[in-house]
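[09:14] KT: can someone run the structure on this one? pasting the chain below
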Amino acid sequence: MNSCTTCKEAIAHCMSTHTFAFAHLYGDEKIMDMHIHNCCEVYYSISGGKQFLIDHCLYDIRPGDLFLINQFESHHLTQIDQQTHERIILSIDPEYLSKLSTGATDLGLFLSVTPECRTRSISPPRSRTALCTLSTNCMTMAALGKTS
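[09:31] RB: done, structure tokens below
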């Protein structure tokens, strides 16, 4: 399984393998400055209070929230309390995401955000269902060897 210990490691693994990687983070790693990357990011908050700045919009993060960040979207996480921040980061190569799609399910739409649809977060319980479905599909495709 592609489990990483930092966000940067997950992004690097995702882009080097052109598949996906995840990181289940319990503590606070060094906060990253505003950044962009080639992969899509699914960010699931388990505990702790933070805020996300995504393409110049500020979002409060509550436990159970799921954030969808497209490739090349600038984003930055800020801490707003002293609680331990537990989260799961899933980094996905956009081409790999399209390989997971079927005629009935275009997973590229899952991460696409247009000016007409600016919602970036999904609140519980839908967020847990969405994260489990996407993670299961990624791991199933990897087990079947559909990584290229």
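[09:33] KT: thanks! The helical segments are 7-17, 94-100, 108-111, 126-143.
[09:34] RB: yep, looked fine to me
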